Each structure stands twice: as C-alpha cells, then as structure tokens.
Amino acid sequence: MTLATAFTKMHGLGNDFAVIDLRGGSANGTASAGANGATPLTDISDTQARAIADRRTGVGCDQIILIEKPRQKLADVYMRIRNADGSEVEACGNGARCVAALVMAETGRRHVIIESVVGLLDAEAAPDGRISVDMGEAQLDWREIPLAKPLDTLHLGIELGPLSDPVGVNIGNPHAVFFVPDAGAIDVAALGPVLERHPLFPEKANIEVAQVLSPTRIRMRVWERGVGITRACGTGACATLVAAHRRKLTGRKATIQLDGGDLEIEWLADGHVRMTGPAETSFTGRLDASLLG
Ligand SMILES: N[C@@H](CCC[C@H](N)C(=O)O)C(=O)O
C-alpha cells in the first residue's frame, strides 16, 4: 500500500504544475512510512503522470515536477520533470522557479541550487519577490539541439504554412523558434503538433512563434512538446531571446511577453541564460489513490 501523497499546485505565469516532494519526511514532503507497512511514494510512472495531469479527472497540470534528494552535496534538491503526456524531460524554466520558491520558503534562504539531469541551476530571490534562475548555457550546435542531420542552427530551413526557417536552440531541452510578423495570427494549435514531430527533430521539439516588438520586447506563443499550448514556457522564452539576438533582432536582454505574462531574459556574455519571473502557489492537496493505481 502506498501512502497518500501530498502535492503543491503551483504555476509560473499560468504554466501549471503538480509539484510532488519525494524526499520523504521533509517539511513539504510525503509522509514517512506508517505502522501499517504503507510506504511513501518514490517515483511515478508515465501512466500515473498522465492521470495526475488530466484536467478532467486528475489534478490537472501541464507538468508534474518531482523533488528528490540532491545527488551532489552542493545542491539543495534534485528536480525531475514529466510532461502531461507522461514523458520525462530535461528542463523546465517555470518549474525551476517554482521549485526554487518552495526550497527558499523551506530553508529561509534567498539563494538555492537546484540539480537536474542537465546540471546545477543557481536560483536567487529578486528584491521584488520574483525569482531569477541561471538556466545554464544555450547549446547551438546541431548535435546538441539535437537535429537529425548537420545544419546551421541559425537557419533550419523547414517550413509549414506561414512558418518558415526557424532557429534551433537547446536550453536543456530542444526548441525551434519561428519569427513572424504577427504571433496572434498563427494557428499554433494546428501547426504546433506537426512541427513538434518534424523528422528534423529526433527527440521532438518545443515550438515557439515570436514577434519582435522592439529591440527589448518580444511577443511569444508556444506549443510545448508533450503538452500542447501553454500560457508560458520559461525555456521557450530563453530560447526565443537567444534566437532573436543571433538573428540580430534584439540585444542580449529582453522582456518576453507570453500569454500568461512577462519574463525577463538575459543571454550573458559567458553563454549562460538568466530568466527572471514569478512563481506562485495555488493550493496544496493529496493525490487520490485512484491516480496512483
Ligand atoms: N514549461 C516548461 C518546459 C517543459 C518541458 C517541455 N515541454 C519539453 O518537453 O521540453 C518551461 O517553463 O520551460
């Protein structure tokens, strides 16, 4: 028998998460094993992730974020991410800010380190209450996106309807950023799923449509791999700024205007990308046993 597992429903600009603490016995975490032999949850399967993410019958969320004990001494926690379709993925910018907010509340510190499969992410509380995360170095080689064949990632050359010639960027996860004159006019729901599975992307890709409003402001809409349209994507915002600067459309710092609100993104001289934005808790609850069955 598995003990009822606590979760925290959080979001970053409307990109929402069920955050499950698998550390066992921690302040925010799963209860420890009971006298009846019940065991705390230690992982979730693809099927369980899909059941939790289901907006009709589950908690309802874009991603499930799992918090585990860190592997490295330097880090506070280890973060894992599952998309709503159950797939486990490497990075989630909005999720990283939410995990940082939880760990900051738990420890009382303003600076925490989140470990993930792509490395250590440094997170800091900004004076205005937002959270700033160093998302690591943007990867720009075709092998790192990854692409199915050697190409200049500044011009991927693919097209579908009004979308053509995206920029490829990996910021822990793969992105293709299409620049358009009017992001609101693009049928993201129709084009996104086709482009996500384009043969050029062996691990699929997150698809961004970006409209440059000024050298410091970009409007962006997203089709997330393994989810669909979301109100915001932190890694997508990072990829968009990097793509825009590489195309000489903006400086190294800009506000990315998403359906759910704004993120500040800076591509630092050392190649790292810093993302600043809000992280909010909606409610806490316990997962119904039927979701874990
Ligand atoms: N919402 C996230 C990205 C989550 C993962 C993505 N769908 C993928 O499959 O890579 C963010 O805020 O970055």
Automatic annotation (TrEMBL):
Annotated TM spans: none
Keyword Isomerase appears in the UniProt entry: yes
Official protein name in the record: Diaminopimelate epimerase
Enzyme Commission number(s) from the entry: 5.1.1.7
Pathway: Amino-acid biosynthesis; L-lysine biosynthesis via DAP pathway; DL-2,6-diaminopimelate from LL-2,6-diaminopimelate: step 1/1
Cellular component, GO, one term: cytosol
Main location: cytoplasm
Residues carrying the site annotation Could be important to modulate the pK values of the two catalytic cysteine residues: 175, 224
Biological process, per Gene Ontology: lysine biosynthetic process via diaminopimelate
Active site (catalytic residues): 92, 233
InterPro entries: DAP_epimerase_AS, DAP_epimerase_DapF
GO molecular function: diaminopimelate epimerase activity
Subunit structure, interactors included: Homodimer.
Class of this enzyme: isomerase
SUPFAM superfamilies reported in the protein's UniProt record: Diaminopimelate epimerase-like (SSF54506)
Entry keyword set: Amino-acid biosynthesis, Cytoplasm, Isomerase, Lysine biosynthesis
Family: Belongs to the diaminopimelate epimerase family.
Swiss-Prot/TrEMBL catalytic activity: (2S,6S)-2,6-diaminopimelate = meso-2,6-diaminopimelate
Protein function: Catalyzes the stereoinversion of LL-2,6-diaminopimelate (L,L-DAP) to meso-diaminopimelate (meso-DAP), a precursor of L-lysine and an essential component of the bacterial peptidoglycan.
Source lineage: Bacteria, Pseudomonadati, Pseudomonadota, Alphaproteobacteria, Rhodospirillales
Cell location: Cytoplasm
Residue numbers binding substrate: 15, 63, 83, 93-94, 173, 206, 224-225, 234-235
